[in-house]
Model the fold of this input.
Amino acid sequence: MDARQHFCELLAHLQAQIKGEEGFTLAYSAEQSGFVRFNHGRVRQAGQVQQSYVTLALYQGQRHAESRLALGGTLEEDLPRLQQALQQLRAVLPTLSDDPYLRLNREAWRSELAVDATLPDSAVMAQQIVSAASGLDLVGFLAVGPQYQGFASSWGAFGWYAASSFNLEFSLFHDNGQAVKSAYAGEQWDAQAFARKLEDARQQLAYLGRPAKALQPGAYRAYLAPAALEELISLCSWGFGAQALASGGSPLQRLFSGNAELSSRVTLEERIEGGLAPAFTAEGPRQALRLVSQGRPGERLVSSRSAAEYGLIANGACSGEYPLSLRMHGGELDEQDVLQRLGSGLYIGNLWYGNFSDLPAARLTGMTRFATFWVEDGQIQAPVDTMRFDDSLFDVLGAQLEALTREPELLLPGGTYGARQTGSMALPGALLSRFTLTL
Done:
């Protein structure tokens, strides 16, 4: 039985069981994933995971409760489990208090998308990776396969999403223990595109054999590769949420209150098409939103609970009110011209261990690592010792932003705790007039 049919059979069973004023929602998630770990350029561990879960929520008036179930994949196993969960929720509901901020979407909406993308299986991809990495100490992790998400309600809502993707995160290690980190992700595996990624990392690896350059704390010209920019933006992305902004706890509070603005080069949007997230949440159909328009604040992400509490209009945001498919518009800088435009300064491929040093000021701190290079006259000269940075997002994407690369890079979450994460970011690289290192 395929995943969609499995979901529909569970849904049909529930619809036949509902009594009186009861209502329900049913959220479904499943994956058929291949995982491969690499070390010293060879496969060290490989496996397959097939799993599916449902979250059943039962409603009566303003009372609600939910239960999450691991499924076995056959109706003979799963229907009795679902029925038992329904009975348990029925027993719990009378003991609960009314929820004053419950605002159910009772519309009979429909959203269905199955992306037709055929990927090689993990064994074929692993073979290509090992072959391309011959002679290199490649360490990495590959996750590949289809993922499914469904949502339905007793009021007629139905959403289905199916897509296949891959995410390869890898590092090339030098004999001295230093490493270059890179990643390749998407919906269509292209062995040549991976070879180009690997070749870029191989070229950077050669510079790691040179003596490291020690820098004094201070402000330096810098280029942040898309993966480095992701570390900064992901820390602040929850700040677009209505609850965070209404309560005054958002790191983007100054932007939305009019006390700060970003560079006119910065446009951020929550997109529906082109990302790797369903076009719906448990709140209903998602909406395409312009979160920042040419440096100025735009729309915010509003869940139904925030809409009820703050008198707003919900727009299908997930309960956490963070972007699921964030995209930053690119600029006019060609990637091959990055080093020449940088001139002398820092080329930063990744930032690590990011955190807030001053949340209201969107001030972020963390470490440089994995192939940060010193560049002079448009040429890489030496690796740079690991240092701590401390700078504000309002400055990095504000007055300090000189240019953005032309083509945003698709970046997928690498988390697999419990299940592979969905969602994506598409970000360009950023050329900065200065970036502050503190120690």
Summary: Residues 219 and 310 are 41 Å apart (CA to CA). The longest helix spans residues 75-92. The first strand starts at residue 23 and ends at 39. The chain has a mean pLDDT of 95.
